Amino acid sequence: MLDKYYKPELVEQEIYKDWEENDDFKAKIDTDKESFTIVIPPPNVTGSLHMGHALNNTLQDILIRYHRMQGKDVLWQPGTDHAGIATEMVVERELGKDGIKKDSLSREEFVKKVWNWKETSGNQIINQLKRLGCSCDWSRERFTLDEGLSKAVKYVFVKLYEDGLIYKDKRLSNWDPKLKTTISDLEVIQKESKGNLWYIDYPIEDSKEVITVATTRPETMLGDTAVAVHPDDARYKHLIGLNAILPILEKKIKIIADDYAKPDQGSGAVKITPAHDFNDFEVGKRHNLEIINIFNDDATFNDNVPDKYKSLDRFDAREIIVDELEKIGKLNRVEETVHTIPYGDRSNEIIEPWLTDQWFVNAKELSKAAIQKVRNKETTFIPSNWEKTYFEWMENIQPWCISRQLWWGHQIPAWYGPDGKIFVAENVNDASNNAKKHYGKVVDLKQEEDVLDTWFSSALWPFSTLGWPEKTGELKNYYPTSTLVTGFDIIFFWVARMMMMGLYFTDEVPFKEVYVHALVRDEKGQKMSKSKGNVIDPLVLMDKYGSDSLRMTLCSMAAQGRDIRLSEQRVEGYRNFINKIWNAVKFCEINNCEYKDID
Cis peptide before 480, with omega less than 30 degrees from 0? Predict the structure, then answer.
């Protein structure tokens, strides 16, 4: 006899265990049936289930179960991402508890400790997805650093390098001075902050005139190599082509005309520091300006500044420079302003645009086919308005910085000869053979120390998880995949990159549909964050009300184009609804109702 009330803790886990034991989620590779495939957006191996995961995976599970019940050959491909920065930080914290610092270990020792951590503590999110009721084929679980995916990553890197689409260059990137690595735009949080706008007078050479520039970062003036004004700004037309004198350094720099300067912003004149501002870097390229890096990797000043500033922290130097400008009469005025400041999402450190040697992908070239396939509707977005966002990002795409100064990840398969010549190969033996042919003798090679951006390996996810570059039965049967379910925030960072890589290496789109779901917010419509204290933990709700109650709440509220305003009361309401279904079954049981197949 059924209990009086529905108790999910007595039901859900037993049912899920039965499903797994009976291989109910396994894909069978049945070529006589129509296939339906979804690849899971791989959660970070460091992660714990949050409400975004709960919504995303519930929607995938609905699609998977629906098509499975239609008798199709269904694969829901699971796996996790190695999450370079996040994992290194977690393991460093764990080592710190034992008084061990990363710097005291060799690379090999540290990576070994990371693998040990991954095996013992790094897969909790998989169990949490099972707790949610996800019907993935867990027998096919993949990891972005497993042997097969590592092979695919090396193959792709070498191929793109040989085709001229991967190269090494000195460019600006988002530099985290605390973690001492480049990070992606997705890992940069723009925070609106109160600050100052300093107006600084730059004297005109052989004249009593001055040109006043406005800046929120006066410390970077030590790297200025020009002042830009708009070509149509009548106030400054007569100064274009003349020299301004850079205060403090007493150095001549050109006054140039460029559309980047906006007459209605600040003073209309902009100091150009190509090595420490992304926009200034582009201006510098257009005008062939000198590029002077003034920072070390920890954002202290380097040897390219006067001795009195060397080794100073950038913000300590700011105060000294502002004081000096005031003393020499070059500080025109100071205004309060509100502006955005970039922070690293992991370190909470202010990010510095920094000029370094990095590895890049020519994303502009790869984007052409990816744009066309969406225009041709070979891949469609649901809702379709997200196509506009996709096109805007892709049509303005910049070179993709793929190198990271970390130890955990895919070490870049490039080796340097004694004169710095680069040899790219899938393994050291091939690199050594290539070097021997080049030098005419055996030489010592040193492998590139940087690892690849985690988005590089996850860009291959739809086909590398199916055994590519080998021509496997899984690849033939389940690729291209059917539907990708994702949040809008990674359309550019993940969806676009999967499109580019999938098309280049398989000549097919990696998925036919991209279903973009909304955000889960709190009941007041606020974005959930730990700092606000409004985070709703799905694990707590599942323990209290059951997984089905949470899943029903999320999917019933997941209307297209509308964010979900979630509260515990709504989940409780759906638990009560499920209890009514339970009571209906109990009523049938009391009245000896029997289920019979009807032919």
Answer: yes
Pairwise CA distance, residues 14 & 74, whole Å: 23
Alpha carbon distance 261, 267 (integer Å): 10
Q: 359: which strand partners?
A: 168
Q: How many CB atoms lie within 10 A of CB 228?
A: 28
Give the end-to-end CA distance of the chain in Å, rounded to a whole number: 29
| Cβ pair 372, 197 in contact under 8 A | no
* Residue-wise DSSP of 98-126: TT--GGGS-HHHHHHHHHHHHHHHTTHHH
- Determine contact, residues 8/547, Cβ cutoff 8 Å: yes
**What's the pLDDT at 561?**
66
Positions in the chain whose pLDDT score sits under 70: 561, 598-599
Helix (H, G, I), strand (E, B) or coil at 491: helix
Task: Kindly give, in sequence order, each residue whose CB lies less than 8 Å from that of residue 411, ignoring residues fewer than 6 positions away.
Answer: 447, 448, 449, 450, 451
Check residue 598 and give its pLDDT.
Answer: 67
Q: How far apart are CA 292 and CA 305, in angstroms?
A: 10
pLDDT tens track for 181-198: 999 888 899 999 999 999
How many residues belong to the chain? 599
- Nearest partner of 182 among 341, 354, 299, judged by Cα: 354
| pLDDT for the residue 122 | 84
In the three-class reduction of DSSP (H, G, I as helix; E, B as strand; rest coil), residue 34 is classed as coil
How much of the chain is helix, strand and coil, in % rounded to 5?
40, 25, 35
Burial 269-278 (b: 16+ CB within 10 A, else e): bbbbbbbbbe
